[in-house]
UniProtKB/TrEMBL annotation:
Organism: Pseudoalteromonas porphyrae
Domain Heme NO-binding span(s) in chain numbering: 2-161
The name this protein goes by in its record: Heme NO-binding domain-containing protein
Highest taxon in the source lineage: Bacteria
UniProt cross-references to InterPro entries, sorted A to Z: H-NOX_domain_sf (IPR038158), Heme_NO-bd (IPR011644), NO_sig/Golgi_transp_ligand-bd (IPR024096)
GO molecular function: heme binding
Lineage: Bacteria, Pseudomonadati, Pseudomonadota, Gammaproteobacteria, Alteromonadales
Pfam families for this protein: HNOB
Amino acid sequence: MKGVIFQSLEGLVLTHRDMACWNQLLAKNAPKDRAYVSVNNYPDQELNALVSDICIELQLSRAKVLNQFGRYLFNYFMKHYSVVVGHYSHFEALILNIDSVIHKEVSKLYQNTNLPTMDCMMVCPGHIVMHYQSPRQLCFLAEGLIYGAGEYFLMDVTIEHEQCLLREDERCTLNIYYQPAK
Ligand code: HEM
């Protein structure tokens, strides 16, 4: 996983706790003197271990922590990748373009990316079906990112996680329902 994801995770921890807490998490779950560089790759197990300890620290389930992290990460992406996403002004257009445009641009910016596959189809205005596939099984992070996009573009979003890799389905199916926030 890219360093940018770990940098953002640090930001999330700092919103709930402090630097001492992040340093403790690092001391336990990363090699000595770890400093994350955004373009470099770090082991997925390191992210998983950090997330597990954040769950203990915040007394929240893994799904909840990944969801919160996704919401935080979306804003982080919008700030740090304005070149790639700055021209999106609607939730729907952004979601429909994650896989075919946004993540494609990301893999041009960085070498050796590990991105998920997310096929999206608009069923009707207000309803998109997304199929998520990834060996990292971070579907709850994907959910959080989508909720984050909803908040960013002032949309009310509901997701029904119909099929799930974590329940041994072949892929995740997310039914995304959205409408302008009331
Ligand atoms: C709602 C919108 C988005 C969703 C649902 C989404 C989903 C994801 C997920 C779930 C991952 C974790 C890797 C995996 O599951 O295999 C990921 C990684 C990543 N995404 Fe996205 N993403 C979104 C928007 C964006 C945006 C706007 C950017 C930046 C322009 C971005 C850049 C990245 C990067 C840099 C990674 C890490 C890749 C790596 O470690 O090699 N994503 N995305």
